[in-house]
Amino acid sequence: MMRLIIGALILLTAFLSYKISSSEFFLIALIFLALLFLVLIGIIRSFRRINFKYAEIPLLVICISLVGILVSLLRPYNEPVKSSADAGENLEYAYKTDQEDRRQLRSYVDFFSELKDRDRRRLQQVKKILSGNKD
Description:
The chain is 72% helix and 0% strand. By secondary structure, it is mainly α.
C-alpha cells in the first residue's frame, strides 16, 4: 500500500511539474527544507540517541522533488514568436513568452536552455516590426 502511495505521489509531482510553470522553484525550496530537517536530525542525533526512521520522509520528499524537477526540465517551450497581422499582438506575445522563459529553471541550465536562440528570434521580430513601422 505504501508503494502505491509513493508511486501516486511521484506521478502527481511529475504531472504538476510538467503542467505548471515555475513549479521547479517550489520543489527546490522543498528540497532545501528537507535537507535542513536532515541536518537538524543529525545535530540532535549527535547529542541524543534517536531513531533514524525520522529521516525516511525527508529523503522521500527529496527523491520525489528531484523527479519533479527533472520532468520540468523536459517541458517544451511555447513558440517564441507569433505571426499575425497585428504588430501589437505580436509584441505582447513576444513579451509574455520572454517572461515565461525566464521563470523556468531550464533557461538557467545550459544543457537544457534554448534561451539565447529564442531571445534572438524575438529580437529579430521586434526589429522587423520597428523597421516596418518607420516606412
